[in-house]
């Protein structure tokens, strides 16, 4: 199974290799999970990738995994405007503008309508909506004409999972932003699109179950996927790489589901 996964990864890496040669990319939440897989993939295609996250040690490990010559870490929280300013000052110092922005960082936790507190709401909307908004807004002066902006939404935005309403609403807002910003930025040929992962096996899943039997919870998630398994972060990175490249030149305001058919059949 491991050899098969390695073969698939090698095949994917070769599909678009070099499509971002000489480009500059930013991936927020780029130290683990989907963000790290996407950052690694964009770097494999030739981009120099700036990754952000709140934990310096984890970011440093990510840079080592991607390759120090191909990635730069900037510690920060997207919910903090000063951290975003510092990120883009670092990107600007490279002197090549910005060609790809994957606004991926976010957070999520369970709470029913009855259980939802102001703190729960503010934490999720502060990162997922407010943080994404200012991640993109503050990038505008750096974005080169023809750049690609990719937002992380989720299948949860439309499936009504109990106790996940605030997270779902935040991701529905991201889907809406993708449409509006695509319309606003099209004059600069900047393409804004979204990617909506389904049930993906990432460290974030383990943190959500919070002490429960993670394997049992993941098996329950997988049972709801028509393909019968969880997706991988690398499979989401495939969609991100496509949207980042010129191969998606006729995609605007779109939403790519990477869900094993979860929301389709």
TrEMBL record:
Keywords: Oxidoreductase. Residues 23-206 form the Ketoreductase domain. It comes from the Bacteria. Belongs to the short-chain dehydrogenases/reductases (SDR) family. PANTHER family: BENZIL REDUCTASE, CHAIN DEHYDROGENASE, PUTATIVE (AFU_ORTHOLOGUE AFUA_4G08710)-RELATED. This is Short-chain dehydrogenase.
């Amino acid at each position: 199974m491991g050899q098969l996964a390695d073969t698939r990864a090698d095949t994917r890496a070769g599909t678009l290799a070099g499509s971002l040669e000489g480009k500059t990319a930013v991936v927020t939440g780029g130290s683990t999970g989907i963000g790290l897989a996407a950052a690694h993939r964009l770097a494999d295609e030739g981009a120099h990738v700036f990754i952000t996250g709140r934990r310096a040690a984890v970011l440093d490990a990510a840079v080592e995994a991607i390759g120090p010559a191909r990635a730069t870490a900037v510690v920060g929280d997207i919910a903090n405007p000063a951290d975003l300013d510092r990120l883009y000052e670092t990107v600007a110092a490279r002197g090549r503008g910005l060609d790809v922005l994957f606004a991926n960082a976010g957070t999520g936790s369970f709470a029913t309508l009855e259980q939802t507190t102001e703190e729960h709401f503010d934490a999720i909307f502060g990162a997922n909506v407010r943080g994404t908004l200012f991640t993109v807004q503050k990038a505008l002066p750096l974005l080169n004409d023809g750049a690609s902006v990719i937002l992380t939404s989720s299948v949860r935005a439309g499936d009504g999972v109990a106790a996940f309403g605030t997270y779902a609403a935040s991701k529905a807002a991201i889907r809406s932003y993708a449409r509006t910003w695509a319309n606003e930025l099209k004059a600069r040929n900047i393409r804004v699109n979204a990617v909506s992962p389904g049930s993906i096996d990432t460290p974030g899943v383990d943190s959500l179950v919070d002490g429960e039997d993670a394997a049992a919870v993941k098996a329950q998630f997988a049972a709801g996927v028509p393909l019968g398994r969880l997706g991988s972060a690398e499979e989401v990175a495939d969609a991100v790489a496509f949207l980042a490249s010129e191969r998606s030149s006729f995609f605007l305001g779109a939403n790519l589901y990477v869900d094993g058919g979860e929301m389709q059949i």
